[in-house]
Design a protein that fits this description.
six-stranded antiparallel beta barrel, FAD/NAD(P)-binding domain, alpha+beta, elongated, 2 domains, Helicase, Ruva Protein, domain 3, five-stranded parallel β-sheet
Length: 411
């Protein structure tokens, strides 16, 4: 009987177990090793606990949303795409819905439904989920022979799938163990960086605005020396004591691929629905009602209270100036700040705070069709441990499902 061992029971590991069971049925002994007491802890917190399962799009769009090594994933995506993911969970009793940006969620808005369905399918297939810590993959004559556990026990194996995740969110079990195991076998681990991560900002006013959430704003990010933004999107974001976070910020971070080699500046359009001229007209109308007020007390209808002192300072208009004394040139300065509040990005927050780890096992050492190592026969990789990460929108989970399916099918 064929023996398959999967290290890690996240999205990729569980899908690998399910895929292997589909191919071999009862003709294989499938063991999933998980160091946490509960499988798929990271899946439980994705999409703010709602779980953005995948993106309802075609294979070319999936590839296009993986900025590094997207082409490497073409075969895996073709073998198990977003339609397959959606079909699987619908079959497993989890109805889905498609939201803005083709993001797919369970109708229940509960990530636990996705986890329970996948874990249930794996257990029903006859695979065993073992609560243990894998220490080392054992080899003989350049091929996989088994897995050594931390307690000294050895599990023999014909194939091993390494699906231990990255280094982001270590509390969920993603602590980088898999990289060390792979390196011990001669595999190359490319530089590990945070991706989909909050950003640190030079401006001190961010800390004073900490906790302020902005909705329906546009965040645009420019790389030094370039006229076109590397990112520009409408949505929600959040000020923090170190800078900015929230959905828009996390998305933007994935596009800032040259952090440390160049500089980035972000601009927040606080009123994206209004042009400069329309905003000026709106401000004029507000000023008509506030003629004798100080400028500092005239923006309550337009902006969040805590943000007003920041905007006033950046506009260069004296706070105590009466509204009826503010000229067109001053209003233009005010409008420009509201339409493009500048933030100078100083860096990423630590990798432990990132949703996804950038970098991982070099794709040059992995067969893109089977996910098998080119160095060790019978060793396979799946999920975030591979050097391929995507933008937000369900694409990273689809990478996990697609590579997991390919690894399980071929192990």
């Amino acid at each position: 009987m064929k023996k398959i061992v999967i290290i890690g029971s996240g999205a990729a590991g569980l899908m690998a177990a399910y895929s292997a069971s589909l191919k071999y049925g009862k003709g294989a002994e499938i063991t999933v090793i998980e160091k946490n007491e509960r499988p798929a802890r990271k899946v439980m917190i994705t999409g703010k606990g709602r779980c953005n399962v995948t993106n309802n799009c075609d294979v070319d769009t999936l590839v296009a949303n993986v900025p590094k090594n997207g082409k490497f994933l073409f075969s895996a995506f073709s073998g198990f795409d977003s339609k397959d993911t959606m079909g699987l969970f619908e079959t497993l009793g989890v109805p889905l819905k498609t939201e803005r940006g083709n993001r797919v969620f369970p109708i229940s808005d509960k990530a636990v439904d996705i986890v329970d369905a996948l874990v249930g399918a794996v257990k029903k297939s006859g695979a065993d989920i073992l609560h243990a810590v894998a220490k080392k993959i054992l080899t003989e004559n350049g091929a996989v022979a088994g897995v050594l556990l931390e307690n000294g026990e050895v599990i023999s194996a014909d194939s091993v799938i390494l699906a231990t995740g990255g280094m982001s969110y270590p509390l969920t079990g993603s602590t980088g163990d898999g990289y060390k195991i792979a390196q011990a076998l001669g595999h190359t681990v490319t530089e590990l960086k945070p991706s989909l991560v909050p950003l640190t900002v030079h401006e001190g006013f961010c800390s004073r605005l900490s906790g302020l959430a902005l909705k329906n704003v546009t965040l645009s990010v420019f790389e030094e020396g370039k006229k076109k933004p590397v990112f520009s999107e409408l949505g929600e974001m959040l000020f923090t004591h170190f800078g900015i976070s929230g959905p828009l910020t996390l998305s933007a971070s994935a596009h800032m691929r040259r952090m440390g080699k160049t500089t980035y500046t972000a601009y927040i359009d606080l009123k994206p629905a209004l042009s400069l001229e329309q905003l000026d007209s709106r401000i004029l109308r507000d000023f008509e009602d506030e003629k004798n007020k100080d400028f500092a007390n005239s923006l309550d209808k337009l902006l969040p209270k805590s943000l007003i002192p920041v905007i006033i300072a950046l506009s260069g208009i004296e706070p105590t100036l009466k509204v009826n004394q503010i000229c067109r040139e001053m209003r233009t300065s005010l409008c420009r700040v509201i339409k493009a509040l500048p933030l100078h990005i100083t860096g990423f927050r630590p990798i432990e705070e990132a949703i996804i780890t950038g970098g991982g096992i070099s794709v040059k050492e992995i067969n893109p069709t089977t996910m098998e190592s080119k160095l060790i026969k019978g060793l396979y990789f799946a999920g975030e441990i591979i050097d391929a990460d995507a933008y937000t929108g369900g694409f990273n989970l689809q990478i996990a499902f697609s590579t997991g399916f390919a690894a399980g099918k071929n192990a």
